[in-house]
């Protein structure tokens, strides 16, 4: 196989060399102009690049799992425009359905609210994304447990090595589903914005007691699996984690300490304070209306969690100094995380050049559009019936992605990038990249 690929590559090089000689001969004899020469050479070079990277990508997909991750980090460090590896982080929308009515959710401003993806698209995910991923996060602004074939997704995740992540309100969880999620080694991010029943209903429109009951069942099965390691040795790989995902707003500032107490009681792995996405319709609900009080409550929460050895992270700019203080205390106290924490190289420079999204990640939104990240809503391509037959590396190394990478390397990003919460301080380590360290 290797010799065959080398033979094809040499054959392509030879044919391109002969074409170049013919073009130069026609140019010097005056048959074609200089502009036409440049156009022909550009097209030939692009075609050769596609063929070359098709061989290299196929070779990299057959390599061990860790080598793909190292290659992806090397591509980002060297700021390459043409990438010889697939993305390692994916955000995949399986459905646009949701059983909550959150006042803080951007889903209200989305189209196609009650729709599942087609079976052909899921087959494409499974063929192109699952074998090459490091982390896959299912659903961004919807409830993934409402997807019609969710149980099949969990079974498929068990067959591959990537770290599956689910963001859920946990209202639809039952005992069987909880067991399957833990056995499939899922990172379970539970959206919990309040413990008080009235405040939770005001924010999310659901029953918090039902969520808390499901969380208790989750903790019970997790502890049972840890005790009976021999029984679950084939399925339980110790990578499964439980996170509380909290979106601060004007209603739940007093609830932050209650959420921290629940986290300590359940001995969960992490609490994550999500950045509030401000739109014209929900700006009046932002924590920035009473910023001083919010910072005080958030610091009290972080200190309480740190004392009880629970990690609390956030991308919120106003909390970065406080977050770094208690994060450093946590990592220094825990020997298990100390080595991996020292190995992490944080970006020293501030600017768009340190953005990893076009080099690492792919996001497929509810309209089957491929967008660069969760902030930049410009479609780079659309997964239609015609494109589903092609391999993903043709999109990944397509013109749109290459132009975006070049703009980031040259520090001339799109207008959307200037609104990004990670653009000002790239020392923030995104929580999605830390699950399998």
Describe this structure as you would to a colleague:
The chain has 16 helices and ten strands. Strands 7-6-5-4-3-2-1-8-9-10 form a ten-stranded mixed sheet. Helix 6 (175-183) crosses helix 8 (208-227), helix 9 runs parallel beside helix 10 (291-307) and helix 10 (291-307) runs parallel beside helix 11. It has 437 residues and is an alpha/beta fold. It is 45% helix and 9% strand.
Residues in β-strands, percent: 5-15%
Rounded average pLDDT:
76
Strand order of the largest sheet: 7-6-5-4-3-2-1-8-9-10
- How many H/I helical runs? 16
Order of helices and strands: HHHEHEHEHEHHEHEHEHHHEEEHHH
- Report the C-alpha radius of gyration, rounded: 24 Å
What is the count of β-strands? 10
Biggest β-sheet: count, sense, barrel? Answer: 10 strands, mixed
Shape: elongated
Cα(first) to Cα(last) distance is 34 Å
Structural class: alpha/beta
Unreliable segments (pLDDT under 50, ≥5 consecutive)? 48-64, 335-351, 424-437
Percent helix among the residues?
Answer: 40-55%
């Amino acid at each position: 196989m290797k010799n065959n690929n080398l033979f094809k590559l040499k054959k392509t090089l030879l044919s391109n060399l002969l074409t170049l000689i013919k073009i130069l001969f026609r140019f010097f004899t005056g048959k074609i102009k200089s502009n036409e020469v440049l156009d022909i050479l550009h097209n030939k070079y692009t075609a050769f690049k596609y063929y070359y990277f098709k061989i290299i990508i196929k070779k990299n997909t057959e390599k061990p799992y860790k080598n793909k991750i190292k290659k992806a980090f090397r591509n980002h460090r060297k700021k390459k425009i043409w990438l010889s590896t697939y993305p390692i982080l994916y955000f995949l929308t399986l459905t646009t359905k949701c059983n909550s009515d959150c006042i803080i959710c951007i889903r209200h401003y989305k189209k196609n609210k009650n729709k599942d993806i087609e079976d052909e698209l899921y087959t494409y995910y499974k063929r192109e994304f699952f074998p090459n991923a490091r982390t896959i996060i299912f659903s961004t602004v919807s409830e993934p447990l409402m997807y019609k074939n969710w149980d099949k997704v969990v079974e498929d995740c068990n067959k591959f090595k990537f770290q599956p992540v689910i963001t859920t309100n946990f209202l639809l969880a039952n005992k069987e589903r909880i067991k399957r999620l833990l056995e499939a080694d899922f990172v379970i991010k539970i959206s919990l914005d309040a413990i008080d029943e009235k405040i939770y209903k005001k924010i999310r429109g659901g029953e918090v007691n039902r969520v808390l009951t499901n969380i208790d069942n989750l903790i019970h099965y997790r502890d049972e699996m840890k005790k009976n390691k021999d029984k679950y040795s084939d399925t339980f790989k110790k990578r499964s984690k439980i996170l509380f995902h909290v979106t601060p707003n004007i209603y739940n500032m007093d609830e932050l300490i209650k959420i921290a107490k629940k986290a300590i009681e359940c001995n969960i792995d992490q609490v994550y304070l999500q950045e509030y996405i401000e739109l014209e319709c929900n700006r009046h609900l932002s924590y920035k209306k009473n910023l001083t009080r919010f910072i005080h409550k958030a610091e009290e929460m972080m200190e309480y969690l740190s004392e009880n050895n629970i990690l609390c992270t956030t991308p919120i700019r106003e909390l970065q100094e406080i977050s770094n203080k208690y994060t450093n205390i946590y990592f220094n106290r825990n020997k298990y995380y100390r080595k991996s924490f020292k190995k992490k190289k944080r970006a020293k420079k501030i600017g768009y050049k340190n953005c990893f999204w076009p080099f690492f990640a792919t996001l497929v939104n509810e309209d089957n559009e491929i967008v660069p990240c969760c902030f930049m809503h410009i479609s780079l391509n659309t997964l239609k019936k015609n494109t589903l037959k092609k391999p993903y590396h043709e999109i990944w190394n397509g013109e749109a992605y290459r132009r975006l990478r070049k703009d980031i390397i040259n520090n001339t990003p799109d207008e959307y990038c200037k609104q990004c919460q990670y653009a000002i301080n790239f020392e923030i380590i995104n929580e999605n990249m830390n699950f399998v360290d």
